[in-house]
Amino acid sequence: MKLRQRRLPAGWYPETAAEVREMLKAWELADPLPAPAAAVPASLAALAPHAGWYFSGALAWRSWRSLAQSDIVAVIGGHRPAGAPCLVDLSEAYATPLGNIAAASELRADLMAALDCAEDTAMDNTVEVQLPLLAAAQPAATLLWVRAPADQAAERLGEFLAAWAERTGTRLAVLGSADLTHYGPDYGFEPAGRGASALAWAADNDAQLCRAALALDTGRVLALAEATQATCSAGAVCCAAAYARARGIKVGRLLELTSSHAVRAAASFVGYAALTYAPA
Questions:
Q1: CA-to-CA dists, residue 263 to 2, 6, 9, 58, 125, angstroms
Q2: pTM value?
């Protein structure tokens, strides 16, 4: 069996099942789910940040907990430029501290036949950092691992996934894995200088991206990513939004918008958002 082993170094996410469960328990105590009577409908798609768990794991877990229980979860990563093909991991299973996750092989084969795809062989955090959360939130689900480019191919991917789910009657959820503005000297991006003006500029930039994603305006998402570097993974955002739109969802719901600066103050920081797409 072709098993994709962990490639991210220690520090991105825990190395043992006990450590994973301890972190999940702490996050849930700090952020309990609403009572059933007040709960929002289970989501078909969501966006989650993909930094190390110390910085954004709790926020990502909020997105994962919003998703409906599914047969397959497509985790859509990014870090792909416009014009590049989708990258698809071809492993048969994926190792996590909570056990292996099987690949959604039938969906993957159909996707590879339908769209411009190549094999993903790189080490990249955008999908891998989500996998223990998938194993915890959706223990019966299989995984489709894709990294989408920052162009309309990401929309076509979302639309393909929606059509496939409806044609096959499969319970399919899509998790777009994306961080927002990367600001500061570490990223060579300081359009508003430093200090309070930098924080305000980046917060507004992140909010604009979230408004576009919530409105399912994929064209605006792509434009912001190119013009103001509002996300490192526009393809992931566009795929999740396009999937939700194709499934009849009209608007998303913002769970939280924050940044790494709230965790550790520094001149360089990254924006994080959790949002979901649920039927009305």
A1: 38, 26, 21, 11, 19
A2: 0.96
Domain-embedded: residue 111: yes
Alpha-helix residue ranges (DSSP H) falling in 169-251 = 196-214, 218-228, 234-246
99 vs 31: CA distance, rounded Å? 25
DSSP code of residue 38: G
Q: Is residue 9 part of a domain?
A: no
Does residue 267 fall inside a structural domain?
Answer: yes
Print the domain residue range for 123: 14-28+40-277
Q: Find the helix or strand (DSSP H, E) in which 125 lies.
A: helix 125-128
What is the pLDDT tens value at each position of the chain, 280 positions in all? Answer: 899 999 999 999 999 999 999 999 999 999 876 654 445 569 999 999 999 999 999 999 999 999 999 999 999 999 999 999 999 999 999 999 999 999 999 999 999 999 999 999 999 999 999 999 999 999 999 999 999 999 999 999 999 999 999 999 999 999 999 999 999 999 999 999 999 999 999 999 999 999 999 999 999 999 999 999 999 999 999 999 999 999 999 999 999 999 999 999 999 999 999 999 999 8
Report the CATH number at residue 89: 3.40.830.10
Structure tokens at 67: 């998703």
Q: Which DSSP helix (H) or strand (E) runs through 165? A: helix 152-168
Q: Is residue 245 part of a domain?
A: yes
